[in-house]
Specification:
This protein is of the alpha/beta class. 39% of the residues lie in helices and 26% in strands. It has a 5-stranded mixed sheet with strand order 5-4-3-7-6. Strands 1-2 form a two-stranded parallel sheet. It has 3 helices and 7 strands, in the order βααββββαββ. The longest helix is centred in the first third of the chain and has 30 residues, at 8-37. The protein has 2 domains: 4-74, Orthogonal Bundle (Helix Hairpins), CATH 1.10.287; 77-154, Roll (Chitinase A, domain 3), CATH 3.10.50.30. The radius of gyration is 21 Å and the shape is elongated. α1 packs antiparallel against α2 (46-70). β3 and β4 form a beta hairpin.
Length: 156
């Protein structure tokens, strides 16, 4: 799995989520499965199958978080003091030949903010934007050809 860049807050939130899922979550789902087993025939027991499905999804999330944390690089920069595009900042960009600007959170999807789309630093656009400052123009290869964008603003 590739490296994931996370802010300290996101890293700690994921650690708390992992701890909760591996302790409380596993105990709760085991209790639900046990209660469903007590209802009888497992072949036609909807409660049992639903609980096992929930358990599978929870275990998949546990493995996903473990992999993210194992491959995480933590950035401690203060987004309000950043003058270049770095993980953890909100960046506004404008495509060449357009007047409209678009705001994105630059970082991991695990740090998604309400109402703001995410640009991964490993995506073609993310790689082009990384380290750029307001006023800089960057180019990146998109499926439809090379696109050019301007970094308009960094921060909220």
């Amino acid at each position: 799995m590739s490296e994931t860049v996370l802010t300290r807050q996101a890293y700690e939130r994921l650690q708390r989520e992992l701890e909760d899922l591996t302790t409380r979550g596993r105990i709760e789902i085991a209790n639900v499965i046990e209660a469903a087993r007590a209802l009888g025939d497992l072949k036609e027991n909807g409660d049992y199958h639903a609980a096992k499905d929930t358990q599978g999804k929870m275990e998949a999330r546990i493995r996903q978080i473990q992999a993210l944390l194992a491959n995480a690089t933590i950035v401690d920069s203060d987004p309000s003091e950043t003058t270049k595009v770095t993980p953890g900042v909100v960046v506004s960009i404008r495509y060449e030949d357009e007047d409209e600007t678009y705001r994105f959170f630059f970082g991991s999807i695990e740090e998604k903010m309400e109402g703001i789309d995410v640009i991964s630093p490993t995506s073609p656009l993310g790689q082009a934007l990384n380290g750029a400052a307001p006023g800089d123009w960057v180019e990146y290869e998109a499926p439809g050809g090379v696109l050019r964008v301007e970094v308009v603003k960094i921060g909220e």
